[in-house]
Amino acid sequence: MTKNNNINNEEEEFVSFGHNLNTKIRFEDADEDEAAQVSGEAAQDESMCDAEAVETTEVTDDTTSADYYFDSYSHFGIHEEMLKDVVRTKTYQNVIYQNKFLIKDKVVLDVGAGTGILSLFCAKAGAKHVYAVECSQMADMAKEIVKANGFSDVITVLKGKIEEIELPTPKVDVDGGVVLPDKASLFLTAIEDSEYKEDKIEFWNSVYGFDMSCIKKKAMMEPLVDTVDQNQIVTDSRLLKTMDISKMSSGDASFTAPFKLVAQRNDYIHALVAYFDVSFTMCHKLLGFSTGPKSRATHWKQTVMYLEDVLTICEGETITGSMSVSYNKKNPRDIDIKLSYSLDGQHSKVSRTQHYKMR
């Protein structure tokens, strides 16, 4: 799941190459002199704060997601994982190198630059200048990487939040801005996952003989980001929403979409799974990739939402419902999900609404 836009100006359009899908890059034509504001966006934070039995400290939701979010990107492991994600990194590299007309002689803004890999791609493709914004401690490493590769005169690394820093240039877009990727589609499917659900959710019912089911309720509310085996898929996949990233405003990432999933075989359903596809339609040749379970794995993996019910479903039966996605009111870096589903089948008759929170 991609997290989502915090855009102050609804007219703003970004160029996005991101280390997660939310990294944004903008271009500036050297002849443009109009000022434009730049606003940041945050990605999903999959981290969870564990409670210790002996001593506990109350941590607010704001602290967990806002402060820990940037700190998580200070660790080398997450950047190694993203760089080794060949689907993601090679696609962006191909988009930039094979479409240099979008980059050459432009001023580029890379938001959430991480190690600076996309800034380096742009510099090598002929960008006039690249401003690489990174809030985590990785910004210090990015400066060294830029220097080591001889691009210090082309790439400027700026440490801080995009919402707060002041750019050395008044504007970084041309003709309304170019966004890469410019299209994103969100899909939903259903899976059998008894073994993993038993291990991760039902485990809390009896822990060394003690009832810890209060944690089970919380665990159920936290979607699991993991790789799903395509053999677990029980239903077809349905499109929930397609977003034109180049024209999105901040509120467009909040939505409610209906769905209807048709069972492809007799089986049991333990969870619904969300994933996204992206496409680069601005390129000379259409490029894109999918993060779905039937495609090559990426570091985004898939988002698994476990159901309270085990659905016994027969081939041809349908699960109908709706999914609502919105920013958390206390912290926009969190995403609130409301999932309503119904099955009126031969062996299961269920109608329920569940709530989840992505961090």
Description:
The longest helix has 13 residues. The N terminus is likely disordered. The protein starts with a strand and ends with a strand. The chain is elongated. It is built from seven helices and 16 strands. The strands form four sheets. Strands 7, 8, 9, 11, 12 and 13 form a six-stranded antiparallel beta sheet that branches. Strand 11 and strand 12 form a beta hairpin. By secondary structure, it is α+β, with helices and mostly antiparallel strands.
Summary?
This protein is an alpha+beta fold. The chain is built from seven helices and 16 strands.
Mean pLDDT: 83
Query: Uncertain runs with pLDDT below 50, 5 residues or more?
Result: 1-24, 28-64
E-strand count: 16
The value of Rg in angstroms is 22 Å
Biggest pleated sheet: 6 strands, antiparallel
GO molecular function: histone methyltransferase activity; protein-arginine omega-N asymmetric methyltransferase activity
EC number: 2.1.1.319
Catalytic activity: L-arginyl-[protein] + S-adenosyl-L-methionine = N(omega)-methyl-L-arginyl-[protein] + S-adenosyl-L-homocysteine + H(+)
Protein name: type I protein arginine methyltransferase
